[in-house]
Amino acid sequence: MGxxxxxxxxxxxxxxxxxxxxxxxxxxxxxxxxxxTLFVIEFVFTTSVGQxxxxxxxxxxxxxxxxxxxxxxxxxxxxxxxxxxxxxGQSLVYPGSGKNSFLSLLIGLLNGYLFAGSIWYYLxxxxxxxxxxxxxxxxxxDFFVQILPPAIFGWQFFILLAVAMLIxxxxx
Length: 172
Description:
Layout: H1 4-22, H2 24-46, H3 48-59, H4 64-87, H5 101-125, H6 139-144, H7 149-152, H8 155-170
Helix pairs in contact: 1-5, 2-3, 2-4, 2-5, 2-8, 4-5
């Protein structure tokens, strides 16, 4: 099997192609939902709410490694659920006219970065619990894992951007 980063780069590219097909108006709706999801995940895991839950489970005999795996699986499951719901059926559609393939590609790639990059981050944080990944990572992996969305942005950034996106949706 090849390097794990290739899988995620292909997934990001696939989101870019989906963005071109769907159009930038629909892709911005998915971007908003992914930002809100990342806000919720990061807020719960990094604030006192997450610390209380963690201390409860630690008191019940759950090890720190098991907590990290459980948090990562919850985060990945939530991201998968929100992405599935956002791409199916009725979704947020931003106003605008015309088809701009380049803009659609960029926003699709952004969605791929938010989605696949976040999943990559959480799975790597839990030491790849669902896959047999050999920890012989390339320099590209070591660099890219440092610039994944949850690694560089806090919950404050995600909620600020999500609120700005919602305001843009409402303003005519």
